[in-house]
């Protein structure tokens, strides 16, 4: 089985964004007050939104399951207040639950959290519990910077975050460290803010004893770990200078990188530098980069192709990266997939054609 640990519902039916637009308008126009029950989307609309996009790519690229969460750039925790964030988050998570219910073989849910700048992360515990215990989700996306590019929150290693981490450990769910859109014009969202945040989170983890306090806490740093693998020597040296543990030891059971790196040399570097026990296959399709690479004739985000081309990767390591590590980091995935395995063969045989999915703008 090939598990893609990183997918967002970037192709959600229009009604979701219509709700969000009205919610945002309601922040300044009291005649358009936020109505928490206002999103109406049919099952057919959900099917249509996935068949020519994520499901088609799963079939074409030969992957089986996507760990699926709401559109990351749309979380926009900096908009409104904690109640704004909660209403929006619940709609987004409920929609992911409907996707996973319609396609239990293809998608397993990970939730957005109702974060808000200046509001303690403990405020997210109820929604995390709802998603895990009631909706069958297996993890969450945690935004280290709910301010959207101004970095006003304490570092992830601060006790400010501990109540949420305690709940994650209690539920045995990991978090993908994932920022959202940037409201700081200096930082392009997917080109700078995402990669900055990945790198920043790693350096935060390096400098504190978070995993001494929480030996079972697990984070996935997406986008190949940002700049970290490329600058592994810098981080090893910093760890040494700061009397911190060696990096392999520091990350062993707690920090994992995905393979959302959109060219072969980058994937080769990741595999050479980061232990295979700490890498999870991910593509972030359909996401940040949607085009075809003219140098290869294939989609940039078809990351399985890159891994398939690395001849030096042993079968054992390949199995870990494609499946085993995801099962280790997201232990609830086994139960979540249990119900759907029997029908997977049937789903694969019903391939649909149609032009490639080409929506612009959204991530
Ligand atoms: Zn993402």
Structure notes:
By secondary structure, this protein is an alpha/beta fold. The protein has a single domain (3-10, 38-351), classed as TIM Barrel (Alpha-Beta Barrel). The protein is 42% helix and 10% strand. It has 15 helices and ten strands. The chain has a five-stranded parallel sheet. A hairpin with a 4-residue loop joins strand 9 (292-293) and strand 10 (298-299). Helix 1 (14-26) runs antiparallel to helix 4 (82-102) and helix 5 (125-134) packs parallel to helix 6 (162-171). The longest helix has 21 residues, at 82-102. The radius of gyration is 19 Å and the shape is globular. The two termini are 26 Å apart. The structure holds zinc ion (ZN). Zinc ion (ZN) is lined by residues 6, 8, 72, 178, 222, 284, 287. Zinc ion binds at residues 6, 8, 72, 178, 222, 284, 287.
CA-based gyration radius: 19 Å
How do the strands of the widest beta sheet line up side by side? 4-5-6-7-8
- Percent helix among the residues? 40-55%
The CATH architecture can be named as Alpha-Beta Barrel
Q: Which hetero ligands occur in this complex?
A: zinc ion
Query: What is the CATH class name?
Result: Alpha Beta
Proportion of residues in extended strands: 5-15%
Estimated structural class: alpha/beta
Low-confidence stretches: 342-363
- So how many helices? 15
Give me some keywords for this one:
alpha/beta, about 375 residues, five-stranded parallel sheet, globular, 15 helices, binds zinc ion, TIM Barrel
């Amino acid at each position: 089985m090939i598990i893609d640990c990183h997918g967002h519902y970037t192709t959600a039916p229009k009604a979701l964004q219509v709700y969000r637009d009205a919610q945002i308008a309601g922040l300044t126009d009291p005649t358009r007050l936020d109505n928490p029950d206002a999103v109406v989307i049919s099952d057919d609309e959900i099917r249509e939104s996935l068949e020519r996009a994520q499901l088609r790519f799963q079939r074409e690229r030969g992957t089986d399951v996507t760990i699926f969460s709401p559109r990351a750039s749309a979380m926009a925790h900096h908009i409104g207040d904690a109640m704004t964030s909660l209403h929006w988050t619940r709609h987004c998570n409920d929609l992911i639950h409907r996707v996973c219910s319609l396609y239990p073989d293809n998608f397993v849910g990970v939730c957005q959290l109702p974060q808000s700048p200046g509001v303690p992360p403990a405020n997210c515990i109820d929604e995390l519990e709802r998603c895990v215990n009631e909706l069958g989700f297996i993890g969450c996306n945690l935004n280290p910077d709910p301010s959207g590019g101004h970095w006003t929150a304490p570092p992830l290693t601060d006790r400010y975050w501990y109540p949420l981490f305690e709940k994650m450990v209690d539920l045995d769910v990991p978090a993908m460290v994932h920022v959202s859109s940037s409201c700081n014009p200096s930082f392009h969202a997917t080109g700078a803010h995402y990669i900055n945040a990945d790198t920043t989170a790693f350096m935060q983890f390096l400098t504190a004893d978070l995993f001494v306090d929480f030996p079972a806490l697990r984070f996935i740093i997406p986008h190949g770990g940002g700049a970290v693998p490329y600058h592994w020597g810098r981080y090893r040296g910093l760890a040494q200078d700061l009397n911190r543990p060696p990096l392999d030891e520091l990350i062993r059971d707690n920090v994992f990188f995905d393979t959302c790196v959109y060219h072969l040399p980058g994937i080769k570097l990741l595999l050479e530098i980061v232990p295979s026990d700490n890498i999870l296959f991910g593509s972030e399709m359909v996401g940040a980069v949607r085009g075809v690479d003219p140098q290869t004739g294939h989609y940039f985000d078809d990351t399985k192709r890159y891994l398939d081309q690395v001849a030096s990767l042993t079968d054992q390591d390949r199995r870990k990266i494609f499946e085993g590590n995801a099962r280790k980091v997201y232990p609830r995935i086994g139960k979540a997939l249990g119900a759907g395995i029997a029908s997977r063969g049937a789903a694969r045989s019903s391939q649909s054609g149609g032009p490639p999915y080409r929506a612009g703008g959204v991530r």
